[in-house]
Known about the structure:
The chain is an alpha+beta fold. The protein contains 14 helices and 23 strands. Helix content is 28%, strand content 24%. Helix 12 links the parallel strand 21 and strand 22 (434-438). The protein binds uridine-diphosphate-2(N-acetylglucosaminyl) butyric acid. Residues 1-20 are annotated as: Disordered.
Amino acid sequence: MRRKRLGGQSPLGHAIEASPPIHGHGGSILIAMPFDPTNSHDVIVASHSGPLFGEVVVPGAKNSVLKLMAATLLADGTYRLTNVPVIDDVDIMADLLEALGLRITKIAAPRGEVGQHLEIVNSGAIRPVAPFELADRIRASVNVVGPLLGRFGEIDIALPGGDDFGGRPIDMHLRGLEAMGAVFDVTSDGIVGRCQRLRGADIEFDFPSVGATENMLMASVVAEGTTTLRNAAREPEIVDLCEMLKKMGCRIEGVGTSNLVIHGVLPSTLQSVTHCVVTDRVQAATYVAAVAMCGGSIRIERAVAEHMGMMLSRFTDMGISFQIDPAGIVATAPQRLSSIDVATLPYPGVATDYKPLVVAMLSIAQGVGIVTENLYPGRFRYVEELRKLGADISIDGHHAVVRGVDHLRGASVVAPDIRAGAALVVAGLAAQGMTEISDVFHIDRGYDDIVGRLAGLGASVTRIRPEN
Length: 468
Ligand code: EPU
C-alpha cells in the first residue's frame, strides 16, 4: 500500500502541481523517450580476442550526470548538460524528473562529441512527489531529496533502489537534513519529509558518503546561513557537482577537500547554466582492464589520469604502462599481469566500483592477490560468475583471495550489477572460447555502448537479442 501523498501548498509557500507534467514537447530534434526495458533479454557474446589496438573515447560519468540533473531542480531556467552518457540510468532519472515537473529533451551530440546533450527546462511548477516505480529503480533518485527540501520544503519519495550490495542505508542523508530542520516520516515504503526554510548546520559525516555529501550540498546551497560539511566525500563527481552549483550562483568553499563550507543563498538568485559532465573514470578503467587482459596498446581519449591516480598506480604495479597527456592516456599491457593486493577506499583511494575489474584482472595474473572491500560487504556476488570461467577465487569475509590461473575458459554467466557485468564482458574477451553474458540490462544502466567501443578496439564481442 502506498503511503500518504503530499499536495496543495508547500511549507515554503509554493503551489504544488495537482497533476503530473506532460512528457516531451514538439520540435525536430526533440526526443523525450521514457525508459524502454525491451532490451532486458539481450545477451552479450564475448569471444577470445587477440591484442587490442586503437582509440576509445570515454563519455561523461553516470555518477556525476545523475546528480547534475537533480541540481536543476534548484532554480528555474533552461539548462544544458553536455557529454552526457547514453545509458539507461539517465533515462530513468529523466523520467523521474519529468514526473516532478521538469521538461527534458535529449539531443544527439554534435559531430566530434560523444554521448548526448540534455536540455532541461525548470519552469518552477514542481510537484515534489516522486513516482515509486521510478525512484525504486536507481540509487541516485535519493539525490532529489536535498534540492526539493531545500527549495520547496517538501518531499515524498520511495526508498532508493540501485545495485544490490547488501544494505545501503540513507541514515546520514536524513540525519544531516534533520540537523538543518527537516522532519521525516520513514516507512519501509518510502520517505515523506517537510521543513520550513532549511537552516545552516555544522555536520560531520561518520563516513565520507558520496550520496549524503551530494544531498547535503544541494540542500545547503539554498539554506539560510552557513553549513559546514566535515569528512565529506571528495570524488571527482562531487567536484563536478560543486562546479556546476557555483556556476549557478551557489557559494561553496573547500571544493575538492573533505571540509565544505556552504553559504546559503535564495533560490531566486540562482541561474540556469550549461555544463559539461566530467569523464567517467570507471568506464575509462574498464578499457584499461580490457587491454590489460587481452594484450595490446590502446589510447583512452578523455580519460583524466588525475581522477584515477591511485588506480593507475596500482595498475602500474600489475605491469601495465601508461603514457599520460592532458587529452587522455595510452595503456599498454605487459606480457602477463602481476598480482597485487588492493583495498577499496573512498576517493582518493581505489574506488569500490573498480573492484570487479581488478578481481577479473587478478584472475589471470601471475601469483596471488588479495582484494579487500571496505565499502560494501555484499559486493562479491560476481565472484561465483568468474568461477564459472575457471577463476580461482575464495572469499573470506570482506576479502577475496584471487589465485591467478593460466587462462579462463568461456561459459554462460549472469551480470549481477553494472560494474560486475562489465568485468564479466572483459573477462570473456580473455577467456578461451565463447562467453555469454545475460542480464545485460544491468550493464546498460551505466555503460554507453560497451560492445561497440570494445569492438572498435578489435575485440570479438557482439550483442544479440534472443528470439522468444
Ligand atoms: N552509507 C551509510 N549511510 C548513508 C549513506 C551511505 O551507511 O546514509 C554507507 C553505504 O552503505 C556504503 C558506504 O556508506 O557502505 C558508501 O556509500 P555512499 O553513500 O558513498 O555511496 P552511494 O552514494 O550510495 C555512490 C555511487 C556508487 C559507488 C559509491 C561509492 C551513485 C549513483 N552511486 O553510491 O556507484 O559505488 O558511491 O563510491 O553515485 C556504480 O556506479 O556502479 C555504483 C554502485
